[in-house]
């Protein structure tokens, strides 16, 4: 892959979470759409991404917007009967992903996501 942003998208679309997580720095910072405090580290990121793949149904990227130091991937998915849309905001330095921020809408879908993720990550 030509850049870490493209490689991340490809890995997620293949449901290859191990490869996706390996693209990040050891001290990656993950900002959750439903938790105030950021998570730090690959281990935490891997656990979250694995849980998300079981919670999101019909996940698909629908857009891609980028610059040299950051990239936004727009997506759509379903959580139960709630349709949602969101973005993965990726930051990188020296070809390594350093930060992932996820935002989702609408609020009802974010609430359903929070409830299902909490159950999986406890």
Automatic annotation (TrEMBL):
<dbReference type="InterPro" id="IPR032710">
    <property type="entry name" value="NTF2-like_dom_sf"/>
</dbReference>
<dbReference type="Pfam" id="PF12680">
    <property type="entry name" value="SnoaL_2"/>
</dbReference>
<dbReference type="InterPro" id="IPR037401">
    <property type="entry name" value="SnoaL-like"/>
</dbReference>
<feature type="domain" description="SnoaL-like">
    <location>
        <begin position="6"/>
        <end position="99"/>
    </location>
</feature>
<protein>
    <recommendedName>
        <fullName>SnoaL-like domain-containing protein</fullName>
    </recommendedName>
</protein>
């Amino acid at each position: 892959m030509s850049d870490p942003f493209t490689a991340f998208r490809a890995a997620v679309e293949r449901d290859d979470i191990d490869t996706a997580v390996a693209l990040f720095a050891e001290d990656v910072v993950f900002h959750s759409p439903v938790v105030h405090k950021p998570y730090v580290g690959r281990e935490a990121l891997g656990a979250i991404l694995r849980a998300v793949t079981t919670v999101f149904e019909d996940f698909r990227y629908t857009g891609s917007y980028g610059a040299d130091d950051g990239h936004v991937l727009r997506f759509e998915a379903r959580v139960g009967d709630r349709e949602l849309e969101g973005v993965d905001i990726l930051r990188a330095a020296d070809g390594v992903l350093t930060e992932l921020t996820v935002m989702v809408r609408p609020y009802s879908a974010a609430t359903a996501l929070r409830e299902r993720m909490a159950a999986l990550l406890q």
